[in-house]
Amino acid sequence: xxxxxxxxxxxxxxxxxxxxxxxxxxxxxxxxxxxxxxxxxxxxxxxxxxxx
Length: 52
Fold this sequence. Notes:
By secondary structure, the protein is mainly alpha-helical.
């Protein structure tokens, strides 16, 4: 299973990080979940640290 921006898990983790419940670093490194959440966060201007 590979996640995309429409996956429920991506939406849930994106919302949790964007609302401050969790940090980006707490998103599980499961398949491409963290990567997809990071893409959505970066589109909103949220610093994920992936550009460092």
